[in-house]
Amino acid sequence: MKRYESSEALSLPAVVATFPTRQRLSSIVEDLCSRAGHCVTVQEIRDALGERSFATLLLFFALLNLLPLPPGTTLVLGLPLMLVALQMLSGREAVWLPKFLLSKSLTADQFRKLAEKMLPRLQWLEGRVRPRYWPFGNSRMAERTIGLVALILGTVVTLPIPFGNWFPALACALFGLALAERDGLVLVAAGVAVIIAITMLGVVFGTAGVMASMVFS
């Protein structure tokens, strides 16, 4: 019995060592900032994220769209969001992005400024989520369901709607975070963000319709 306990104790560290702790998304963003050259391309972002889940990619691109951006930037950063969601819906196992999108870039200064605004929010979120109350038994079903909703929201993000893309991007970020951590409470928060987004879009389109009818009447 003593010999068995001794061999088990000796072998345990080797077994544990084969399961390294996964690097947090906030750490990856910090690494990208530290080694950024003249610009940071979408391909560099994708390569830095590596073989991470679609949920993490959805979260990352959604967070970028939550930040104050110059006009037209959401079209560049919204397309990866849509493509990730579409591939989640289709059941792909690895992310694919077209070459023309991979070559899109932000200057190093622009990326660092975005990261400075994004990192505190991301680190705050990372410290508060955990697996709980997850309603999906099948991870593939969860990916496809969230992918469908995120695809619709991602399409809205790319549209030039005044004040209309922040809540859809927030909902996508919360969906990605909920899926990555299997957190049912964050999933509920994402659903609330969707309801707010739909309400705000209704107000925007309703106001535009009233104004159009006043102009052309």
Strand content: under 5%
Poorly predicted parts: 1-21
> What would the average pLDDT be, to the nearest integer?
80
Order of helices and strands: HHEHHHHEHHHH
User: Radius of gyration from the CA trace?
Assistant: 21 Å
**How far apart, in Å, are the first and last alpha carbons?**
93 Å
**What characterizes the major β-sheet?**
2 strands, antiparallel
Q: Helix count, per DSSP?
A: 10
The geometry reads as: globular
Whole-number count of domains: 1
Structural class: mainly alpha
Find the count of extended strands (DSSP E, 2+ residues): 2
Helical proportion, percent range: over 70%
Strand order of the largest sheet: 1-2
Could you please describe the fold and organization of this structure?
There is one protein chain. With 217 residues, the chain is mainly alpha-helical. α2 packs antiparallel against α7, α4 packs antiparallel against α5 and α9 packs antiparallel against α10. It has 10 helices and 2 strands. The N terminus is likely disordered. It has one domain.
